[in-house]
Design brief:
This is MBL fold metallo-hydrolase. Pfam families: Anti-Pycsar_Apyc1. This protein has a single domain, classed as 4-Layer Sandwich (Metallo-beta-lactamase, Chain A). It is built from 9 helices and 13 strands. The chain starts with a helix and ends with a strand.
Length: about 260
């Protein structure tokens, strides 16, 4: 009896979704704006593999509308990583739940473990009256520690500097990309952990504030080799873009496909 339990069957018909093979090769920013910059969209990014969505990072108020503009009217993300719990990054989760539940789709939700209790409370009143299910039958909650696997690749997750300690996180696929999420400058991470030539997507505005990195701070705190790999986002508008261009810092624009190779 025990043998039959522990022996791996030679031919298993897996009921799971077959993993995509391949390594992500591009990133599509759906929005690049700060929380109040509506025309630039809420900051959210789709990591893609051969032009197909691989992982969505954050889901703000307008993210699903922009996602459909990019990938088609019937498209919903299958997997989402959440950097932190500000509404410009999670305001679209309720809408995603409704659309996924009503179309019979599940969505894998990668959430840093430190955020789970608060996210649970924020979604406590979300549900469909006609279903004898809760949202966690549709959202497949995947607790994230320092590392996790997605589509057979190992990603790392580090706390960053955005308001309360331990409340905001970055995402790193070594050799491909680092995504800061909302943060102040983080030289200790970029210099010690992000060392394989990856593109570095980084929160930045022309003038920093207690929640977000300023351009002058990045120029002061990061060495030229790091500055050359930056692609900044989460900004307010034309004045920021002008400052980035004057400083020679690359910036992301809405609906822009950026190569990771
Ligand atoms: Zn934000
Ligand atoms: Zn934030």
């Amino acid at each position: 009896m025990l043998d039959s339990i522990v022996t791996r069957p030679a031919q298993t018909q897996s009921k799971r979704t077959q993993p995509q093979t391949g390594v992500p090769d591009s990133a599509l920013f759906l929005g690049v704006g700060a929380a109040s910059a509506a025309e630039l969209g809420n900051a959210a990014c789709v990591i893609c593999c051969e032009a197909r969505p691989w992982l969505l990072i954050d889901c703000g108020h307008d993210t699903l509308v922009r996602y459909k503009q990019a990938f088609g009217s019937q498209s919903l993300p299958r997997a989402v990583f959440i950097t932190h719990l500000h509404y410009d990054h999670i305001g679209g989760l309720e809408q995603l739940y409704f659309k996924a539940a009503l179309s019979g789709q599940t969505v894998r939700l990668y959430v840093p473990v430190q955020l789970i209790q608060s996210l649970f409370a924020m979604l406590a009143y979300t549900g469909l009256a006609e279903r004898r299910e809760d949202i966690w039958h549709t959202f497949e909650l995947h607790p994230v520690g320092e590392q996790f696997f997605h589509q057979q690749l190992r990603l790392s997750c580090y706390p960053v500097r955005h308001q309360a300690p331990g409340s905001a996180f970055s995402l790193h696929l070594p050799g491909r990309f680092f995504y800061s999420g909302d943060t102040r400058p983080i030289p200790e991470l970029l210099i010690h952990q992000v060392t394989q030539g990856e593109i570095i997507f980084h929160d930045c505005v022309a003038s920093g504030n207690p929640s977000h990195a300023g351009l002058d701070e990045l120029l002061k705190e990061y060495p030229p080799a790091v500055l050359a790999r930056l692609c900044v986002y989460h900004y307010h508008g034309a004045d920021d873009i002008h400052a980035f261009e004057q400083a020679g810092i690359r910036y992301a624009e809405p609906q822009q496909l950026i190569s990771l190779c």
